[in-house]
Amino acid sequence: MLRQKLAQLRQRLLAAIGLGILATAIILVADYLFNDDPAVRIPADRPATRLLAIPPLLEPTDEDGVARYHLDLHAASHNFLPDRATPTFAYNQTSILGPTLRLRQGDRIAIDVTNHLDEDTTTHWHGADLPAAADGGAHSLIHPGQTWTAEFDVIQEAATLWYHPHVKYHTAEQVYRGAAGLMIIDDDNPSARSLPSTYGVDDIPLILQDKDFTKTSELDFTLTNYGKGYYYPTLTANGTIDPYLSVPAGLVRLRLLNGSQARLYHFSLDAGKTMTKIASEGGYLNRPLELERLTLSPGDRAEIVVDLSDVDRLVLLDDSFGRVLELRADPTLVAVTTPLPDRLNDIERIDPSEVDRSREFVFDSVGKGWGINGKQMEMARIDDTIRFGDTERWTLQSVSGWHVFHVHQTQFQVLSRNGQPPEPADRGWEDTIFFKNRNKIEILARFDTYANPEIPYMLHCHILDHEDTGMMSQFEIVKDL
Ligand code: C2O
Ligand code: CU
Ligand code: CU
User: Fold this and answer.
1) Strand duo 391-398 + 384-387: pairing
2) For an engineered disulfide with 322, which of 13, 30, 41, 147 has Cβ 3.0 to 4.6 Å away?
3) Which atom from ligand 1 is nearest to the alpha carbon of 164?
4) Cα–Cα–Cα angle for 343, 347, 353, nearest 5°?
């Protein structure tokens, strides 16, 4: 009798364990299928714990009228968490990321980049209008111990650009480990004079990257999640986890950069506040644009102004992570309170009747990775040749997955999205644009600043694991077709 009871009990126990395992398996599979965002949310109702790091400004030396900068890329060590050193990549004296370069329109500049890593790198100036030899694409390799120099004239208007490596197969990992920095261009635009512009005080750079850590505090890098872009659970802003910053009790400009591998950010402010977008990737919008929400895809930048004149605290939120940054109003700091100007820029729409040539770019999976127009990136193959001076219409289309189109050297305008004219937020100069599966986007671009028949520029998906697994092609701009 007792023995029978025991046997019964054992069977029930085993059945229960079996059910438990099955249930856990179902939850894990469902989690994988329906929720690939492991974001760790930061509750916005308790104070943030760490002071936001501000990347230092890099001072140039003047050499016969050329502003000369030096960047040293090296392996570094950064304390994301107190008492825990994490190996990172960094430029110059920073422990992660790099200093901010501040350039003036009209200047001639030279940037020397020395590679102290034990792997190849390149340095690409994302969003910059410059000659192919200075672009720092996949062909401009800097081998360990070498120095490469980019020399060019700053011909474009005020904008927030960034720099990062562009090595075939290794861009995602180098950027993830911290090889990235901002490049701000200033100009004499009189309408912008009243905007908050004191760097680190009321003009705040914010480089957003998601990270994952191993048990021993190393950065855990994963290139891809079965073809889906890889999302990491921990948000960092300028390398700081859970940051706050004291700012003047007035208008504050944030220069947002999505420096993540694959993640999109959906920003908003707490307490029902709105933000005002003043600049897209290539410069100021024609008019400030009030927004409740702002989405940034990988590689994308936006400049927004937020107002702390009637609050003592304002929180920048993201849908996945909760709090991104807590701003604390400090009434002892000098505040900009002048209302934003009505007009900031005078961008004229490119007229589609100017178009000299049209091209199509279809984004799809190819082989084990990704490709454009059915092909994976090939260093020795030039995919498109563009005649110098031409205006082109490009149709971008995804037949599988979400993508972020990015083109080097030029800033484009969105002509249409799925047959509709662009939203006001899409009416500035752009160099990256996000689109979903089955979306179709038309853009217009002019190629009238530089030509070089020997060195190509790149266009690619800025979801970095897509780029690294083939979704990139090359074009050259030539004077004689
Ligand atoms: Cu942000 Cu081809 O680069
Ligand atoms: Cu670029
Ligand atoms: Cu893609």
Assistant:
1) unpaired
2) 41
3) 1
4) 145
Which residue carries 């004079």 as its tokens? 193
SS3 content of the chain, % helix, strand, coil (to 5): 10, 45, 45
Rounded to the nearest angstrom, the distance between the alpha carbon of 175 and the centre of ligand 2 is: 13
Of the ligands numbered here, which is closest to the C-alpha atom of 163? 1
Q: How far is CA 189 from the centre of its chain?
A: 25
> Does ligand 1 lie within 6 Å of residue 458's CB atom?
yes
Give 241's DSSP letter.
S
Residue 171 main-chain phi, psi, to 5 deg = -60, -50
Q: Which amino acid is at 422?
A: P
Distances (CA, A) of 162 to 110, 131, 206: 16, 17, 12
Residue range 403-413: mean pLDDT, rounded:
98
**Mean pLDDT lowest for which of 29-38, 72-81, 129-138, 459-468?**
29-38
**CA 262–ligand 3 middle distance (angstroms):** 9
Distances (CA, A) of 226 to 32, 263, 316, 381, 434: 11, 15, 32, 27, 20
Classified as helix, coil or strand, 47 is coil
How many Å lie between the centroid of ligand 2 and the Cα of residue 408?
5
Pair 135, 125: CB distance under 8 Å: yes
Backbone angles phi, psi at 305, to 5 degrees: -115, 130
Cβ 301 under 6 angstroms from ligand 1: no
In the block, tokens 């930061």 appear at 42
Measured in angstroms, how far is the CA atom of residue 320 from the centroid of ligand 2? 26
**Cα–ligand 1 centroid distance for 325 (angstroms):** 26
Answer yes or no: is the C-beta of 126 below 6 A from any ligand 1 atom.
yes
Please state the rounded mean pLDDT for residues 66-76. Answer: 98
For residue 33, give the amino acid letter: L
90 vs 88: CA distance, rounded Å: 7
**Does residue 211 line the site of ligand 1, with CB under 6 A?**
no
408 lines ligand 1 (CB under 6 A): yes
Q: Write the pLDDT tens digit of every residue in 271-323.
A: 899 999 999 999 999 999 999 999 999 999 999 999 999 999 999 999 999 99
- What's the gap in Å between 253 CA and the centre of ligand 2? 24
The protein residue with its alpha carbon nearest to ligand 1, atom 3, reads 126
pLDDT at residue 5 tops 70:
no
The CB-side HSE value for 269 (13 A sphere, CA atoms) comes to 20
The answer to whether 111 and 70 have CB atoms below 8 angstroms apart is yes
Query: CA–CA distance from 9 to each of 13, 130, 244, 310 (Å)?
Result: 6, 76, 56, 67
Mean pLDDT is lowest, of 277-281, 348-352, 380-384, 422-426, for 422-426
- Which token pair is 208? 């957003």
Residue 155 and residue 199 in contact, taking contact as beta carbons nearer than 8 Å: no
Nearest residue (CA) to ligand 1, atom 1? 126
